[in-house]
Amino acid sequence: MENFNEYQFTRAKEKVDNIKSFYSNLLSYCIVIPVLAYINYRTTSFVWAIFPAFGWGVGLLAHWMKAYGYNPILGKNWEERKIKEFMNQNEF
Question: Where does the 2TM domain start and stop, copy by copy (predicted)?
């Protein structure tokens, strides 16, 4: 039972670390992209700032999906269900 509690603690800590990392990434995005847009506005008429905003935005979306366990392909809690399935089979 102690191993299970350690496992739960480890999983919870990983989840909190992922969420914390996501918010750090979001804060960086909210600071850097407007600065790039301002530089773009002041230097040229070509709107190049949309490319890093889009690319980083896609990465940010993927980071959010990982942090909050959203997986549109495999469904919610897929990983946990598979772990329980393999633990019940005792076939490692």
Answer: 11-88
